Amino acid sequence: GLGLKEAKDLVEAGGKAVKEGVSKAEAEKIKAQLVEVGADVEIK
Length: 44
Description:
The chain is mostly helical.
């Protein structure tokens, strides 16, 4: 998973793929972690 600093850096950078080729369940788990620290997340 991502630590707080990594998640914060991604939020501030904006518009970046975090992980590709994962299952929907894994994508939802990652999304929940990022949303928790304030990210806007879109799963494609």
